[in-house]
């Protein structure tokens, strides 16, 4: 009966025979009877039932008694190796690693195929430590020249961010196939090495290796990292030429690239052109809409997703919560929160961070803290999100206290976390604390301050009238100050009436971004405040001749669960007459109490040119 089991094609009949076996003394520790469980394993493999195969392997009594010195042990080893490969095919990644650990305890020697499979599982689960051990085992067994194993090791290092090791493995491989090239290109794309990814792609083509859909998806991802829409369109053209434009993986990567590069129109076109839409492509466009401040479109797409009978997941909720936060629509955000609980979506750190961010942007910092406290296992991302929320809500002291709790909890703050706490110190005016944290980045945590950290410190010094300290910090920066730093310093000079330093800052801004309006406006105001009206007029003329205009501002407010959007000089709102009348009265009252508009505002004294924030306030 057991011999015939391997030839039975009916899963139902096979399971009936297997159900009888535990009631009979068929499984023994003798070498002859060990063929019984091995046949069970192959029977389950034929039925594509990895759970059954693994269960049967576990049922072999006294597995520790297996000895490599007997031929029967080799048969059991072959069974275990075959189960590992089968489990991987079925996507049972964690079970693969669990079975491999059991094999090591029993002294079962893995085959080359099993080693390659386990290494791939380590990559998927980011199990670098185990992967390193297996690499050592591969070296001892002399399998380093095996192409499949080398590809798996290369992929492991690339996905775990060890690009130097990945490059070394790639360079030492005796030959490269499509998988080798795609793995190293993908690793570069994932680790912000976009230019290197494209150079490798050129080398791949010159080596007469044809790229596949995964290669192109990695190139598209590299374009996203480089924020190069032009390069992305060139890759898109190649995708069409090669004929992989219908591939779902490539399509989703392209849509994500267009959305993250700000080309929402082309992203939407790709979305509409795809007949069968899955949750991934919905998530990409929702996230793209939210990122580019198309909040209402993101919410509409979320509704459409549900009409298409697709179940939202964590990524969906993160995108739509981001949209709610940008629109400051608290009630809709709460509805999304309720839906997360209702559909049973895993309350992961990812979703919790999105909820905290949404509540914070909607002005409900208490709700944000409640979400934070509900998460049992907090990582640095969650702590940073809550610290940022406090900072943006003007609760600098609470942000600092939370940062101190993070350190006391034994966690190591990263660069983003330091940016958040420095921002909190900035908004709260805690100069000494900010200096302490800024210095500790290098002395305690070995982190080199980046542009964002310098920008926080320059703004902090400027807000507190410490212009000399701000200028010293700028002069001693290890990198060239960017637009944000000089703009911040320019604003501080304007507030503190330091005209000469302000003009020098404006000159630097002109060099970095010639099309920016802020240095022109600041310079004109500086001349006007010094009574140099001719100079001020000259600057405004240059600004006009060069076609430089101030970017039109936009603001919105939620009233009765509806978002009302305003732009500068906007009269499209149905209640615009009442809004402008209210605003006119407010400005008159401001003047009565001594509040004087800036010189630029004086030139635009007509109520018809009022800014978007004032219109939102009046409404």
Automatic annotation (TrEMBL):
UniProt KW keywords: Repeat
Keyword Protein biosynthesis: no
SUPFAM superfamilies: TPR-like (SSF48452)
GO function terms (MF aspect): RNA binding
Biological process terms in GO annotation: RNA modification
One Pfam family this sequence matches: E_motif
PROSITE patterns in UniProt: PPR (PS51375)
InterPro entries for this protein: E_motif (IPR046848), PPR_At4g14850-like_plant (IPR046960), PPR_rpt (IPR002885), TPR-like_helical_dom_sf (IPR011990)
NCBIfam families recorded: PPR
Protein name (record): DYW domain-containing protein
Species annotation: Nymphaea colorata (pocket water lily)
């Amino acid at each position: 009966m057991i011999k015939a089991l391997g030839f039975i094609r009916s899963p139902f009949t096979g399971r009936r025979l297997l159900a009888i076996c535990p009631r009979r003394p068929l499984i023994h520790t003798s070498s002859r009877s060990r063929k019984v469980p091995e046949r069970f394993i192959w029977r389950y493999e034929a039925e594509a039932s990895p759970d059954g195969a693994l269960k049967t392997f576990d049922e072999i009594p006294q597995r520790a008694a297996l000895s490599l010195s007997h031929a029967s042990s080799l048969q059991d080893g072959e069974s275990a190796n075959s189960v590992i490969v089968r489990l991987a095919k079925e996507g049972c990644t964690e079970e693969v690693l669990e079975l491999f650990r059991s094999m090591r305890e029993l002294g079962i020697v893995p085959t080359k195929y099993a080693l390659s499979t386990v290494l791939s599982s380590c990559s998927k689960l980011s199990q670098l430590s185990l992967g390193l051990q297996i690499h050592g085992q591969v070296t001892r067994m002399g399998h380093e020249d095996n192409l499949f194993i080398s590809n798996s090791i290369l992929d492991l290092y690339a996905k775990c961010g060890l690009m130097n090791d990945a490059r070394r493995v790639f360079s030492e491989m005796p030959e490269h196939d499509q998988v080798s090239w795609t793995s190293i290109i993908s690793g570069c794309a994932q680790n912000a090495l976009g230019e290197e990814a494209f150079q490798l792609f050129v080398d791949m083509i010159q080596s007469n290796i044809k790229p596949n859909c995964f290669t192109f998806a990695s190139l598209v991802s590299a374009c996203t990292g480089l924020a190069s829409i032009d390069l992305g369109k060139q890759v898109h053209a190649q995708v069409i030429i090669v004929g992989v434009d219908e591939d779902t993986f490539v399509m989703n990567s392209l849509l994500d690239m267009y959305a993250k590069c700000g080309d929402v129109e082309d992203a939407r076109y790709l979305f509409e052109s795809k007949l069968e839409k899955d949750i991934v492509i919905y998530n990409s466009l929702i996230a793209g809409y939210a990122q580019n401040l198309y909040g209402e479109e993101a919410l509409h797409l979320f509704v459409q997703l549900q009409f298409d009978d697709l179940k939202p997941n964590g990524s969906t909720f993160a995108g739509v919560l981001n949209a709610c936060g940008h629109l400051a629509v608290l009630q809709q955000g709460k509805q999304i929160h309720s839906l997360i609980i209702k559909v049973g979506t895993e309350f992961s750190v990812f979703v919790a961070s999105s909820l905290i961010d949404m509540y914070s942007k909607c002005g409900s910092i208490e709700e944000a803290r409640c979400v934070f406290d509900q998460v049992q296992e907090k990582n640095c991302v969650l702590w940073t999100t809550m610290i940022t929320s406090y900072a943006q809500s003007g609760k600098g002291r609470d942000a600092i206290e939370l940062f101190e709790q993070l350190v006391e909890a034994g966690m190591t703050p990263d660069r983003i976390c330091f940016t958040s706490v420095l921002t909190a110190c900035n908004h709260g005016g805690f100069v000494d604390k900010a200096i302490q944290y800024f210095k500790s980045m290098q002395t305690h945590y070995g982190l080199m301050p980046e542009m964002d950290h310098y920008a926080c410190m320059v703004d902090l010094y400027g807000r507190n009238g410490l212009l000399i300290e701000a200028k010293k910090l700028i002069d001693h920066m290890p990198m060239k100050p960017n637009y944000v730093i000089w703009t911040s310093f320019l604003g501080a000079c304007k507030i503190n009436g330091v005209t000469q330093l302000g003009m020098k800052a404006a000159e630097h801004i002109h060099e970095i971004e010639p099309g920016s309006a802020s240095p022109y406006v600041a310079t004109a105001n500086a001349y006007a405040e010094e009574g140099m009206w001719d100079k001020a007029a000259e600057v405004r003329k240059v600004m006009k001749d060069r076609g430089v205009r101030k970017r039109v501002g936009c603001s919105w407010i939620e009233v009765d669960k509806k978002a009302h959007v305003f732009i500068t000089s906007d009269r499209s709102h149905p209640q615009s007459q009442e809004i402008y009348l209210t605003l006119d009265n407010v400005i008159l009252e401001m003047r009565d109490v001594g509040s004087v508009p800036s010189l630029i505002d004086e030139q635009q004294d007509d109520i018809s040119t009022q800014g978007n924030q004032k219109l939102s306030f009046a409404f």
